From TrEMBL:
Name of the featured protein: Bifunctional uridylyltransferase/uridylyl-removing enzyme
Organism per entry: Methylocystis echinoides
Molecular function terms from GO: [protein-PII] uridylyltransferase activity; phosphoric diester hydrolase activity
Organism phylogeny: Bacteria, Pseudomonadati, Pseudomonadota, Alphaproteobacteria, Hyphomicrobiales
Segments for region (Uridylyltransferase): 1-382
Gene name of the record: glnD
EC number: 2.7.7.59, 3.1.4.-
Reported cofactor(s): Mg(2+)
Length: 937
């Protein structure tokens, strides 16, 4: 059948009815095919007809969606197309392949849509879940028909999940398996024997659904917890899973499954009559469903597969397809993702409403924060003015008017939950969301309200939990309007794992956990410093506000400083405390930048940082704030190396600010580090260890953690007496999900370039590098590159191949530049992000070296290209500091000319900038135009 003939079939259908009648419209074309062809040729022609119909129907559904149509309507249209197509295939099979003119009672067959397909909605890449329902005793005819239908669907390259069962088998399996029970809960008749389908439904209602609902609810909620943990525990992950993630479509499905099972409803509209939702909440449910289905359908069509993750590389394309535009300081991508996260939050609110209703029916176990339980938690305990009560082990309100009588009660509700260590009852949270208009300028300036809020922020109980509840209900954004501006705001980069508001809440929660000793992996880092901070409220508020001005045109650190100056007096801070909070916000990135991008063994680095910090108290607070900030970026971001760098910078600066005196001076810390390694190597003789310790400069002892020092010591010991010392070793760094490659070789000016080139030629993307030199002229370089395989065994084989290639390159057995060129021809560029490259050449950052700082879009082979360009400029790299912030690389090189002097000539500075910028390619306006297909993505 031609495309034109196929289009005519669809044109005969009533537009108001979608694809209704397509099955009947296909009867004549199928009959013509069967009349013209015989045997295998007939089947092939029929399959081609069905394929053309499927393609035309999907193309029309896609066109409607892309014309700013409804995602839900698209999903329903694709489901309807599938219904009609399966009906037409069934007609073809029972008419022309396995005809049964007078079928017996045992030859009844019913085709039932189950699962997502049973709901009457299909995404473009969704599986088709079918139940072939047969009488108790199956017949060869029934089995043959099922097999023929499935083979045609498979020939159409459709993903079919199917089962062939009798009613009795369905009941038996649904009693034992919650997944099967859930699929049958959404069973929808497609075609065949209605009597058999009614028998199935009656048996399910009688034998399964009337059993204890609490078992089904508990299983579904446990399944949800497992699924969410697998997809990402936070609904504010910046690459969310639209189907399985927290706040995604599966959460809405779970709510409806539970409602159908417990309340015996069959349509979402019935949830209002059942008393589960108000009309407004039902409207919210429908808006969330519409938005998420729109995202999912666009995602499947745009990627050409069943892709459920809204990853960075598709977000720009999705924002464009969904009609977002740059506005109010946010890019179209950020506006789209902010909308997404607000919807995810709404889904969370609906989940809480359903869970509360289930508890009232005792269909769900009650939730208690066990670690915060108070002895009186099972008593009825009223709060101020009798406005609060403990109900079902949760803080609730006595009536709906408590917030209108006294708006301070809105803040007091959360304060009481924290004070008593109890969760908030969803009914109380519901009442809060309906009273947000009470949060006005009068409440924001109320002394009691601000006192209660500050106590919540400084609490040692449930700070993060309570602040998150305040945020999810909209209270936090109304009470602190500047915080409201960054709610659900994503940062379109690969560095931050969470939205801005979620990052801030996690940072504050991390500080609270550090104070309470609940972060053992980082306790040693700040354990000595944190208890000595005099004014903890300054630290907490500085951390709470450090990113609050993200998304504005001005630098967020400077704009955030002004926000702090406005908010602090409202919270009762003195002018001095206000200025310190403002300073912390302004400089919250400074310590991280110095620690990771500067040579900490250079005295100018420490003195420059000390000049910014000025006092030891500020140093303490900035140190702790930086630790909490990095830790809240995402799992594993604050690794042992960054911790060691921050610790080294802190102690070096404390010496300067203390006038040369410190609780632990530099020599003592070096001695302590040496003693720590000595204790870890008890098998070494004293004279051997003493000789080894003298091979390292002080910077090595202060920057490297003891585990790596042990490995380095053994590697260097094995090289003793070697004529041409060279050793490589690989380890898996599970904390940061990377591979650690250590190379020890005679130092020379092209060494780092050769190592980087070996990585680039092998397809290893470098994300970090630690460069050291021993007193006797050996380089000890540690390179970290991204993993390529999920299984450790595969990754270790790859890592060893890379290490072997680098060893051959250092021995002169292979030419790195040729291998890099060959690799570059087949490499792919990162088009999802755009980072303007920048090169800074500075002689003020060191007394000995010229410092070159290069930043731009990270890519495979970037470090090789940069170091190779520096070598061609006849510069010697004394130390390098390699950092990646997601897609952004920031590489700092301390260099001299070949005589060991600084580069003073401005002409040479200009040449350095020019040649290093060329590494990133021509600027956007000079690049050749992309092909239209690529530009659209």
């Amino acid at each position: 059948m031609s495309d034109m003939d196929c289009a005519r079939i669809f044109d005969t259908l009533d537009p108001a009815g979608g694809y209704a009648g397509l099955r009947a419209a296909l009867a004549a074309p199928v009959a013509e095919v069967c009349k013209a062809e015989k045997g295998h040729a007939r089947r092939t022609a029929a399959v081609e007809l069905f394929r053309a119909v499927l393609a035309e129907g999907r193309a029309r559904a896609r066109a409607g969606l892309e014309a700013r149509g409804s995602g839900l309507a698209c999903a329903q249209l694709i489901s309807q197309l599938q219904d009609e197509l399966i009906g037409a295939i069934y007609d073809y099979v029972v008419t022309y392949v396995y005809p049964a003119d007078n079928p017996t009672f045992a030859e009844r067959l019913t085709i039932v849509a189950v699962g997502g397909y049973g709901r009457g909605m299909l995404a473009p890449g969704s599986d088709i879940d079918l139940l072939f329902l047969l009488p108790y005793k199956q017949t060869p005819w029934g089995e043959s028909v099922v097999e023929a239908i499935l083979y045609i669907l498979w020939d159409l390259r459709q993903k079919v999940g199917h089962a062939t069962r009798s009613v009795a088998e369905c009941m038996k399996q649904s009693r034992a398996d919650m997944t099967i029970r859930t699929t049958l809960l959404e069973a929808r008749f497609l075609l065949g024997s209605t009597e058999l389908f009614n028998e199935l439904q009656d048996a399910f209602d009688r034998e399964v659904a009337r059993s204890d609902a609490s078992e089904f609810v508990a299983a579904k909620l446990a399944e949800r917890d497992t699924r969410v943990a697998r997809a990402g525990a936070s609904r504010y992950l910046v690459e969310p899973n639209v189907k399985e993630g927290k706040g995604g479509l599966r959460d809405l499905n779970t709510l409806f499954w539970i409602a159908k099972y417990v309340y015996r409803v069959r349509d979402p509209q019935e949830l209002v009559a059942a008393g589960l939702f108000t009309s407004a909440e039902l409207s919210l449910f429908e808006r969330c469903e519409e938005f998420l289905w729109g995202v999912r359908c666009h995602l499947h069509f745009a990627t050409g597969r069943a892709e459920e993750r809204v990853s960075f590389d598709v977000q720009p394309m999705m924002a464009k397809r969904l009609g977002y535009h740059d506005r109010a300081g946010l890019s179209r991508v950020e506006r789209f993702m902010k909308h997404y996260f607000l919807v995810a939050k709404d889904v969370g609110d609906l989940t809480a409403i359903v869970c509360a209703a289930l508890e009232e029916r005792q269909a769900k176990p009650r939730a208690i924060f066990d670690r915060f339980l108070q002895p009186f938690r099972r008593k009825r305990s009223k709060g101020p003015a009798g406005d609060f009560i403990i109900s079902h082990d949760r803080i609730s309100v006595t009536d709906a008017s408590v917030f209108q009588r006294d708006p301070v009660n809105i803040i007091r509700l959360f304060w009481m939950a924290d004070h008593h260590g109890l969760p908030l009852h969803p009914d109380a949270l519901r009442a809060v969301t309906l009273s947000l208009r009470e949060i006005d300028s009068d409440l924001r300036n109320d002394k009691e309200a601000n006192r209660l809020f500050l106590e919540i922020l400084l609490s040692r109980n449930m700070t993060e939990i309570i602040l998150r509840r305040m945020n999810e209900t909209g209270v936090l954004g109304r009470f602190v309007p500047d915080f409201g501006r960054i709610v659900a705001m994503m940062q379109f980069n690969m560095y931050h794992h969470y939205t801005v508001d979620e990052h801030l809440l996690r940072a504050v929660g991390g500080l609270s956990d550090l104070e309470a000793g609940r972060l053992p992996q980082h306790q040693a880092l700040v354990g000595e410093v944190l208890p000595t901070i005099v004014n903890r409220k300054v630290l907490y508020l500085g951390l709470f506000l450090h990113d609050i001005a993200k998304g504005r045109k001005d630098d967020h650190s400077v704009a955030g400083m002004e926000v702090a100056r406005q908010l602090c007096p409202r919270l009762g801070f003195t002018p001095g405390e206000t200025e310190t909070v403002a300073w912390l916000v302004e400089h919250h990135l400074t310590m991280s930048t110095f620690a990771q991008s500067r040579d900490l063994s250079d005295r100018v680095t420490i003195e420059s940082f000390a000049a910014i910090v000025q006092t030891i108290e500020r140093l303490k607070m900035l140190f702790v704030l930086t630790v909490c900030d990095i830790n809240a970026v995402g799992p594993g971001v604050l690794d042992a190396w960054k911790s060691q760098l921050l610790r080294a910078l802190y102690w070096e600066t404390e010496v300067v600010l203390g006038g040369g005196h410190s609780s632990v001076d530099r020599k003592s810390r070096v001695a302590a580090a040496i003693a720590e390694l000595r204790a870890a190597l008890p098998e070494w003789r004293d004279e051997d260890f003493d000789a080894y310790a003298k091979r390292h400069y002080p910077a090595y002892w202060l920057k490297v953690d003891v585990e790596r020092k042990m490995r380095h010591a053994k590697m260097l010991a094995n090289l003793t007496g070697a004529e041409t010392p060279l050793v490589t070793a690989v380890e898996l760094d599970r904390t940061r999900g990377a591979v650690e490659l250590t190379v020890i070789a005679p130092d020379h000016r092209r060494l780092l370039s050769i190592i980087a080139g070996g990585c680039a030629a092998s397809g290893a993307n470098i994300v970090d590098a630690h460069i050291f030199t021993t007193v006797d002229g050996l380089a000890l370089d540690t390179i970290f590159f991204s993993r390529a395989f999920d299984f450790d065994e595969d990754e270790m084989r790859r890592a060893r191949r890379i290490a072997d290639f680098i060893a051959k390159a250092l021995r002169g057995e292979v030419f790195v530049s040729d291998a890099v060129k060959a690799r570059a021809k087949q490499g792919a560029s990162n088009t999802a992000f755009s980072v303007a490259p920048e090169v800074v050449v500075d002689n003020s950052l060191s007394n000995v070296y010229t410092v070159i700082e290069v930043s731009g879009l990270d890519r495979e082979g970037l470090l090789f290209d940069l170091t190779n360009a520096i070598s061609k400029l006849n510069l010697n790299i004394a130390s390098a500091h390699i950092v990646t912030f997601g897609e952004r690389a920031v590489d700092t090189f301390y260099v001299t000319d070949l005589t060991g002097a600084k580069i003073l000539s401005q002409q040479r500075h200009a040449a350095i900038k020019r040649q290093l910028l060329e590494v990133f390619g021509p600027p956007p306006e000079k690049r050749p135009a992309q092909p239209a297909a690529l530009a659209a993505t």
